[in-house]
Amino acid sequence: MVSSTEYGSHTWDLLLTVDHQHEDVEKEIPLQVTGDLHVGGLMLKLVEKIKIAQDWSDYAFWWEQKKCWLLKTHWTLDKCGVQADAKLIFTTQHKMLRLRLPNMKTVRLKVSFSSMVFRAVSDICKMLNIRRPEELSLLKQSEGTLKKKKKKDKNSKEPATEDILNLCNSPVSSGLPANPGLYSKTMTPIYDPVSGSPASSTMTWFSDGSTAEQSCSILALSHPTCSPEMLAEMYQPRTLADKAKLNAGWLDSSRSLMEQDVQEEDQLLLRFKYYTFFDLNPKYDAVRINQIYEQARWAILLEEIDCTEEEMLIFAALQAQYHVSKLSLSSETQDSTCESEVDEVEAALSNLEVTLEGGNKSNFLEDITDIPKLADNLKLVRPKKLALKAIKTYWFVFRDTSISYFKNKESAQGEPIEKLNLKGCEVVPDVNVAAKKFGIKLLIPVADGMNEVYLRCDNEDQYARWMAACVLASKGRTMADSSYQPEVQKILSFLQMKNWTMCSQAASEPENVDMKPECFVSPRYTKKFKAKQLTARILEAHQNVSQMSLVEAKLRFIQAWQSLPEFGLSYYIVRFKGSKKDDVLGVSYNRLIRIDMATGDPITTWRFSNMKQWNVNWEIRQVAIEFDQNVSIAFTCLSADCKIIHEYIGGYIFLSTRSKDHNETLDEELFHKLTGGQE
Questions:
Q1: pLDDT tens column, 362-395
Q2: Pairing mode, strands 68-70 and 12-18
Q3: Which of 291, 250, 231 is nearest to 101 (CA)?
Q4: Residue 599 maps to which CATH number?
Q5: Fewer Cβ in 10 A, N or C end of the chain?
Q6: pTM for the full model?
Q7: Collapsing DSSP states into helix, strand and coil, what is residue 575?
Q8: What is the CATH number of the domain that holds 52?
Q9: 3-state SS of 62-102?
Q10: Which of 349-353, 404-408, 600-604, 629-633 has the lowest mean pLDDT?
């Protein structure tokens, strides 16, 4: 028998690989070690044997077989489980990575390959001057979304080097302090809140010289230059199954890049993963606002989100604002930042913010006193299976979160014909301003699925009031909530933009305007209309937005995007427990939606506000969720790893805890507790 002391002192050979650039020095170094040698001691012995005078502080051991970093330098080799057959690579923790931003521009920068992705994204956002990094993450393009490009051109390569913005010399990469992700109210504005152009002091966040201006311009200002050929080369989802492919490649925020097979100089997509854009402010967020705008713009151009022809023209008109205003942008003087214009932008911002249930804790007195009600004659439309839609006028009363309807106003004191509880329902606009159609589609959860109810309003004002009440009621809020009036104004503002056909002022003659309309609409509409027709219609729609500043046009674009029924939905193909067919699961900022894969119709909606708990059975990769009233669901994810959906749910709940009241740093521990899981 050998004593443990004698066994522990026994030396053995360990072959280490050193990742260095010195050709005259061996890369594989054998060392004699003992099991009680700690990782820091191993690093010291290795550096002494290499005898290369350089800074080794960024180096650490990467264990190839186990796919993990040995970062706890005080641990012994025995505690780490390292034996003679271990392949340890002594390599840098920070490596070059290429990121495709939402505006389709590529930046090259140095990123930590050993930190968790959540921390790495925070560091990246500091380099790019983007606040609220918790809203973003890194996405690997799945094979399915690259097939089309490969078929089109087998020789197609990544963007040329001149198209890549190199930020490897930025302050963060150089180890210098960077702009914090959060700001205080005394922080100096770093962007012009009207034009979005960077203030002179902002240049210091980027590298010196002419690159600084180029960096700010690429990140904070919009350059809408896309051709039909460029769109044709990009992946355009046609079905819900296609849309599910877009969300399959999100990286695990609780693991490092190296652990997820990301290599140096690989290209990843930096995208807004969570659609809750908190505390947008044009004084500090020009880059963030521009990148959100660009992500929305490309989602619409590539038809990742559906919109009507009327809505597409609004989006085209708001994009055209850049084209029409590009000459005036350079001539804008300092007095353009007058208070009135700043106030207009900040007023638009107040309509933009999306908060989760419980996220907006208002102290206004009206929230706890008398709850207002709506009462009007509306048309009720009920789809019939064997006949046309039955349309009839009733007297409707909206109180709390419920709608009751009666035969007429006089009978409103008695029992209603029916009472509809809207809490947890889906609210879908059905509007055509040109045709004077103002409809609200309600999908109300019932035991066996969703009950469809259509309401028809007479005019814009009535529609805005009832639509806002329905949206709030679906979230469990009443009209007494402080967000009701802003919601009404947001809807009216959107309708006003849709009202382009009523604005018949002399639009510029299409012949006199050098515009490529195919750059502003999706291919579907490029095929439907001739170029001259599209130009005329876009310019006509542009009359309504021509007085907006560039930043306000972006904010309105984002607002219009948020108003689309499919906004914020990320799709996954799942198989529910007990079901024999696949369904689509839509994950939004406040709910989960089960959708029929064949028809695209919602089947059931579950609100996060009603969720009691959720967990994952990692052995069978099944997500199980419990809701109020003894409702429970379980499903396996077929189009992606179940960890992605688990992280989405936990991430949205984490984001709902944010508050403007304090500017504390992100609670990274809470994020990982909610999203990490226990595999």
A1: 443 344 446 788 999 999 987 655 445 678 999 9
A2: unpaired
A3: 291
A4: 2.30.29.30
A5: N
A6: 0.82
A7: strand
A8: 3.10.20.90
A9: EECCCCEEECCCCCEHHHHCCCCCCCEEEEECEEEEEEECC
A10: 349-353
Out of 479, 505, 530, pick the residue that ends a domain. 479
**DSSP H or E segment with residue 495:** helix 484-498
With CA atoms as reference, report the closest residue to 70 among 90, 45, 49, 97: 90
In sequence order, what are the residues at sequence separation of 6 or more whose Cβ sits closer than 8 angstroms to the Cβ of residue 420? 402, 403, 404, 442, 444, 453
Residue 304 falls inside a structural domain: no
Backbone angles phi, psi at 424, to 5 degrees: 85, 5
Instruction: Quote the pLDDT of residue 383.
Output: 66
Please state the rounded mean pLDDT for residues 272-293.
Answer: 92
Each residue's pLDDT tens digit, 12-55:
999 999 998 777 778 899 999 999 999 999 999 999 998 888 88
Residue 201 has pLDDT above 70, yes or no: no
Q: Is residue 62 part of a domain?
A: yes
Number of domains observed in the structure of the chain: 3
Contact 574, 247 (CB under 8 A): no
The answer to the question of residue 16 being in a domain is: yes
**Which of 39, 72, 92 is the C-terminal boundary of a domain?**
92
| Residues 401/423, Cβ–Cβ less than 8 Å | yes
* Distance from C-alpha of 219 to C-alpha of 130, rounded to nearest angstrom: 10
427 has which bridge partners? 442
Q: Which two tokens stand for residue 579?
A: 């079901």
pLDDT of 182 over the 50 cut: no
> Domain limits at 666?
570-676
